[in-house]
Specification:
0% of the residues lie in helices and 71% in strands. With 137 residues, the chain is mainly β. The chain has a single domain, classed as AOC barrel-like (Beta Barrel), CATH 2.40.350.10. The protein has an eight-stranded antiparallel beta barrel with strand order 1-2-4-5-6-7-8-9. This is DUF3224 domain-containing protein. Pfam families: DUF3224 (PF11528). InterPro entries: DUF3224 (IPR021607), SO1590-like_sf (IPR023159).
Length: 137
């Protein structure tokens, strides 16, 4: 039987590029965003690639979903994997849950499953995350 491992750390984000889908001033409205993150701690990845679809239901209020390609290491095991992310946001910040896309682990991370999350408050320069995972091998 596999034993879940809990890990965590922090990440910073950069290069937020958001583009509207449809009318810019409509509510509700959609947007796409591309973001790069740098993870430290249990997940070590200098430059992830994220793609989000955002639904604004008010001024600075809404939800989003997306995918993040993480290439680096997890507690010293090298490889890559994809996180599927779902979150909500308001004027105070963002709450997000994420899960490893089944079958996306490569290298030493082949067989990776897991989930985690984070809470970001506007103004934070880095964000704490938690991640619980298991390895098939």
């Amino acid at each position: 039987m596999r034993t879940p491992v809990e890990t965590g750390g922090r990440f910073t984000f950069a290069n937020w590029e958001e583009s509207p889908v449809g009318a810019v001033d409509a509510v509700p409205r959609l947007a796409h965003a591309r973001v790069n993150n740098a993870f430290t701690g249990g997940i070590a990845a200098a430059d992830t690639a994220c793609a989000y679809t955002i639904a604004y239901v008010g001024e600075n209020v809404g939800s989003y979903s997306g995918m993040e390609l993480v290439s680096g290491s997890l507690d010293g095991r090298k490889g890559s994997f994809v996180l599927e992310e779902r979150g909500s946001f308001d004027a105070g910040g963002t709450v997000c849950r994420f899960e490893v896309v089944p079958g996306s682990g490569t290298g030493d991370l082949t067989g990776l499953t897991g989930s985690g999350g984070f809470t970001y408050r506007h103004g934070d320069t880095s964000v704490a995350y938690t991640f619980t995972y298991e390895m098939a091998n």
